[in-house]
UniProtKB/TrEMBL annotation:
Protein name: Regulatory protein YycH domain-containing protein
Organism of origin: Halobacillus kuroshimensis
Keyword set includes Transmembrane helix: yes
Magnesium found in the keyword field: no
Keywords: Membrane, Transmembrane, Transmembrane helix
Pfam families reported for this sequence: YycH
Ranges of residues in domain Regulatory protein YycH: 4-440
InterPro entries named in the record: YycH (IPR009996), YycH/YycI_2 (IPR042274)
Annotated transmembrane regions: 9-28
Amino acid sequence: MNRETLKSIILVILIAFSLVLTVALWSYQPASETLEEGGSTADNKLEGLGTEEDLSDLLIPELVVYHENDGHFTFPEPNGKTSFNDQFKKWSLSNFDTTPGEIDLNTIEKGVEVIFPTSLPLKVIKDLFTVNNNVILDNFNKNFERVFLVQNEERSSSTYELWFVQAGSQGDEVTLKASVNASAGDRALKAFEDRNDLTEIVRLADEMPAVDAANIGANHIYLPKDDISVPQVVLQTTAVPVTPLQNDLFPSPSSTIFYEAGEGIKRTKTNDRRLDQKKDDRLMEFLFLTTKSINESGMTEYDLLTKSVQDINSHLGWTNEFRIESLSTGLDELKYRMYFNEFPVMEDEATEGFAQISMTYEDSDIQSYDRPLIKFVRTPYETDSMAELQSVDDVINQIQNSNTYDFNSIKNIGIRYTLEEQTNNLAYNLIPEWYIETESESWAPLFKEEPMPNGDAAP
C-alpha cells in the first residue's frame, strides 16, 4: 500500500469520527434522567420520616414567666412549659377589645407572661385558642409577640383578661384585650403555686442598673438566677430521600432533567424550576427561576404562615421538631427553626442550613425553599454529659466589658444548642451555649469559648 492510499484511508476515518462526534454533541443532554427513574410521581410524601403539623404546633412560646410582685419564675425545661402550653391552647376567649389604650405593664403585681419567638399576626389567635367571634380577628390587622394573663380588677377577682402586647419604638402597645373564663385563669395561676417546681429568673434590665433600659429589649429578657446545666447530646442522621420532594415541587416530571452541576451539586431542573442537592446530599435548595412581573404578592403574614404549613404538609416535610423563628411580609419570607429538648438548634459554618427550613413566596407560590435532607435521631448507645454554662454574672460582665454590643440594640439573650459535626462525619454534637440577638445581627454565640462538659465551666 503506497503512502497516498494510506493518507486517504486515514482521512476517511477522521472524517467519519468527526461526524460521529458532531451527532453526539447535537443530541447531548448532560447526564440527564427523568424523575420517573427515581420513583413514581405518586411518591410525593416522606412517609415514615416526616409528619403533618397544625399551625398551632409551630407557634410555641419560647418562655412562660410568672410575675409576683418583684419576683419572676418559670418552669424548668422541658416538661413544665409543654404542659402549660397544652393547657394554654384550650382557653376560650370572648369580649374582645380592639382599642384597649395604653396599659403600664410594670404595674402588674401578679400574672403570667407568655413570650413568642417572633412577632405574630393577631389572626393566629383563632388557631391558638377557642374564639367565639372570628370576624373581629379577620378584619383586624395588628401583631403581638407577648401575651399577659392578668386578673380583671374592674369586674371581679374571678375574671381574667389576656393582653396581647407588641413592642414598638415608643414602648409596649397592647393591641388587643380579651376575656378568659375564671376556671382557665385559676388553673393557670395554680400551676405556679409550688415554688419548688419552678426556676427563679431575673430580668436583664434589673441586673444592669447603670443602663437606661426604659424602652429596650432588656425589659423582657429573663435569665436563670442560679447556675444552669444542660445536657450535651450526640445525634445520628437518617437520609431524607429527595424524590418525594422533586415529585411534589415539579408538576411535569417527564420534562425534568437531572445532572451533575459541579462542586458536588446534583441538579434537578426544568425551564422555570431548579432543585440543588448540596453538602453530600444533606441540604436542598429549591428556586423558582422566573420572577413575576409584579413583585408585590399581597400576602399577609397569616397567609404566609398558613400557605407554608400547607405546602410542607403536602409532602410530610416536618422531619424534626420545627417552630416558627421569623416572619416578614416585606420580603414574603419565613423561617422555621429546629428544636431539641425545648432549646433552639443553631448551626456553625460546617452545618449551616441543617437545622432550619426557610421559604420565600411570590404571588402565593413558592419562590425558594431551602431545607435539610437529613433527619436527626438520638444515638442509642450514647449517654448525655452535662455542660455547665456561664453564670448570669458572667453574661452581664461579658456584655458590659465588650465593645461589640450597644445596650439599646439588644433584642434577646438565651441558651441554644450549636449543631457541630464530628470529625468522622458519622454523628453530630449538640453543644449548649449562650446566644445573643441584636438589632444589627441575628443570633450569635455570646462567648467564644464552648462550655465544658462534666461540670467544668469555660472561663
